[in-house]
């Protein structure tokens, strides 16, 4: 499914900056976005060729740079656009009526795996962006990823039932410990993907690892009788 079919809204600042591109008909947006995703995902930022992108998208190079000032701007636009698409659908699927912390976290992992199978091309581009080491864009990407992570953690944690947690420990510290653990799992998996020739993330395996930690952390931080599952 083309990315532009997924996105229902886009950041106001980006919409203004890229109004010429976003005013194109959907079919043309699809061609450009899909061609750029494919090229960047396969070759990384430095080796990606705008010549190949315009060839695949069936547009002129001049037209591409009419919409985007340079390759860097195109890449960062595409990253934001992909993240917005995934995030929007993710939150539509999340059941925030569920107040149990670990059940909500478990739900988040399951939904992410579902979206991976539904939008493999988008996830391929995004996961390569997480591995990107180009000095030209690395700092900006890391900043975007950090900001996105902080926002998403806040949303997923919002409204959880804190009464299940042990009262003899500082709740803020408990949540920090849990966050650090899953950040570390994520860092380890990113490192494994970097060392892998295919750069693939094994999401099913990650899901199993996370489930094992859920069990340990639930026993460690929930009151007796308040265990999730």
From TrEMBL:
Superkingdom classification of source: Bacteria
Keyword match DNA-binding: yes
Domain HTH tetR-type stretches: 26-86
A biological process from GO: regulation of DNA-templated transcription
Cross-referenced Pfam families: TetR_N
Molecular function GO labels: DNA binding
InterPro entries, A to Z: DNA-bd_HTH_TetR-type_CS, Homeodomain-like_sf, HTH-type_TetR-like_transc_reg, HTH_TetR, Tet_transcr_reg_TetR-rel_C_sf
Keywords: DNA-binding
Gene3D superfamilies: Homeodomain-like, Tetracycline Repressor, domain 2
Record feature DNA-binding region, as residue ranges: 49-68
Protein name as it appears in the record: TetR family transcriptional regulator
